[in-house]
Amino acid sequence: MEEIPFGPGSIDPAGDDAVLPFEVNGLDVRGRAIQMGPALSALLARHDYPLPVSKLLGEAVVLAVLLGSSLKFEGQFLLQTQTDGPVDMLVVDYRTSGDIRAYARFNKERVAEMDVDGLSKPELLLGKGILAMTIDQGEFTSRYQGIVQLDGVSLEEVAHLYFSQSEQIPTLVRLAVAEMMTREDGGAAHSWRAGGLLVQYLPEASIGVQRDLPGGDAPEGMEHQAEEEDAWAEATSLVSTVEDHELIDPDVPAERLLYRLFHERGVRVYDSMAVREQCSCSRDRIQGVLGSFSAEEITSSIEDGEISVTCEFCGQKYSFDPQEFLG
Ligand SMILES: [Zn+2]
């Protein structure tokens, strides 16, 4: 753990595509920050989505990384939406190894009609439905699933809603995604950048302590609670000053942003965790899935004499000889 910054050059910035955990002792706040660059560009370049869809998926990726990187054991964090809007499904798969992959399913015509609104408010592309967060930590533990209802809710609000409903942890999330055009030799180059900040209020005093109801029989507790509320109010107002461009700006690394927000309250950062764009699909795995199909299902999947499967996450195409499965 390092206090930031002791002076210019005293700390190496985590850089792009690395989750930076931090804590602010003076405010009982913990959280994680990230700036994404090449990994997000590579992920979105796998697909040829309309701009607003890429932007929305980018937000979902940052949110999944901010939430999934809290897992203490090896595992998978899956964020999935199912809604009635122009984008009816988003899937983001984050592994604690740092591997990330994602895709969106959408109706092209409906997205085109929404272009203007969709760009300024990506959540309008989702419509009504649910967002599910699934944590899978291997075969010896049970899967955990949390659900948030979506109805015009931005992805920034999802974590706040989820943590206030399920665990009563005050939580704030900021997300920003932008398409970048840079001039390079031989023309303009296109890339994506994103930034995210998750802040949670976790006072030590509240751990294991039952909070009394308003007017309850706990006079000492009330005073304590008032202090707590002040600390969270301060954290909230500091985070609300963060502008989208600050979250994305390569010249404002996450450390600098955290310092700007919290240095008066003693902000410390932990070791960062790298994120990379990496699909986990393989020929073996798909072969295994096809192997569980009935002869009828195999026969009906044959096209031009072969069975062809395209990975929705990365676009990789796998072709099989039907005879492999019709023995
Ligand atoms: Zn794949």
Order of helices and strands: EEEHHEEEHHEEHEEHHHEEEHHEE
Strand content is: 25-35%
Structural class: alpha+beta
If you compute it from the alpha carbons, what radius of gyration comes out, rounded to the nearest whole angstrom? 22 Å
Based on DSSP secondary structure assignment, what is the total number of beta strands? 15
Oligomer: single chain
Average pLDDT rating: 88
How far the N terminus sits from the C terminus, by CA atoms, comes to 58 Å
Largest sheet: 7 strands, antiparallel
Bound chemical compounds: zinc ion
What is the number of helical segments per DSSP (H or I, 4+ residues)? 10
Low-confidence stretches: 5-9, 208-215
Shape: globular
Helix share of residues? 25-40%
Describe the model.
This protein has 327 residues and is an alpha+beta fold. It is 31% helix and 31% strand. It has helices spanning 38-45, 51-68, 108-113, 115-120, 155-166, 219-239, 244-248, 254-262, 283-291, 295-301, and strands at residues 2-3, 18-24, 29-36, 76-83, 87-95, 99-106, 128-136, 144-151, 171-184, 187-201, 267-269, 273-274, 276-277, 307-310, 317-320. Strands 1, 2, 3, 9, 10, 11 and 12 form a seven-stranded antiparallel β-sheet that branches. A six-stranded mixed β-sheet has the order 8-7-4-5-6-13. Strands 14-15 form a two-stranded antiparallel sheet. A hairpin with a 4-residue loop joins β2 (18-24) and β3. 33% of the residues are buried. The model is unreliable at 5-9 and 208-215 (pLDDT under 50). Bound molecules: zinc ion. Zinc ion binds at residues 279, 281, 311, 313-314, 316.
